Amino acid sequence: MRTALGTAATVAATVPAEILLRAFTLRNRPYLPIWFHRGLSRAMGVAIRTHGRPAARNRVLYIVNHLSWADIPVLGARIRGSFVAKSEVAGWGPVGWLASFAHTVYVARDRRQSAGTQRNEIAERLRAGGSIILFPEGTNSDGTGVLPFKSALFAVVADVPGVVIQPVTLAYTRINGLPVTRRQLPDLAWVGDTELGPHAMSFIGLGRVTAEILFHPPLDPAAWPDRKALALHCHDVIAAGYRRLMRGHVTGEA
User: Is residue 17 part of a domain?
Assistant: First the structure.
């Protein structure tokens, strides 16, 4: 009940204001999704701790590991950027509507021939001064580690002069103040054929969940010989950060 009321209050406070602002100002710029995500995270019982800061500029490609549907409100509460999601998300009822409202870039990840179109859509958003949040694993991990990165969409950096890449590690580290155990990972990570509704109810039913976001130093893509080397470097940085977060070896909070 608390989550439902909190979500309803967040929607009522942000969605009408966003629609009004778009009617009178830049129609294609999302103004309030970050406040929506913050309210939704609070309603879900998620406490967000951050280490480091997002790059203080536009045209940033944030590279993040992917664990759960909850990654969207958690990351969206701290990063001003648009997500990249598979095209099916647009048809997920209220979830799809909210994703479109936040100007999500949709891609057909199961069609290799569409890679050029996907890259162009991301590049266009970056050229317009926006920032993009990309999950290069292509799917959710089970929480035991970080899956290999798909390097195809890293090629977008060659199409947008001045773009910066910032690796970001996300981890769900505590439940009700206690470190997360391996047995609890399935309740946090959304994998396999698990339906969204039941998993969301299980996640919320856990109680107070602590999510930690570790912002690594921004990178100049020109420092790597090709996109595969860049993708591998980002993977290694993020995977090492994930191990540190899950072991409680990262201290300090912004």
Answer: no
CA separation for the pair 187, 190 (Å, rounded): 7
The domain total for the chain is 1
- Whether 224 and 64 have beta carbons less than 8 Å apart is answered as no
Q: What number of helices (H) and strands (E) belong to the chain?
A: 8, 8
Q: What is the pLDDT of residue 27?
A: 47
The stretch 97-120 carries a mean pLDDT of 70
Q: Is residue 2 part of a domain?
A: no
Tokens 């100007």 belong to 103
CB 73 within 8 A of CB 44: yes
List the alpha helices (DSSP H) in the chain. 2-24, 33-44, 71-76, 93-101, 115-127, 185-188, 196-205, 227-246
Q: Kindly tell me the sign of the dihedral angle through the C-alpha atoms of 95, 154, 173, 54.
A: negative
Helix, coil or strand: residue 225: coil
Q: State which residues form the domain around 84.
A: 45-246
Place of tokens 């309210």: 39
10, part of any domain: no
Assigned domain for 254 exists: no
- Rg of the chain over CA atoms, in angstroms? 18
| 74 φ, ψ (degrees, to nearest 5) | -65, -50
φ, ψ of residue 11 in degrees (nearest 5): -60, -45
pLDDT tens-digit map of 165-224: 999 999 999 999 999 999 999 889 887 667 777 888 888 889 999 999 999 999 999 999
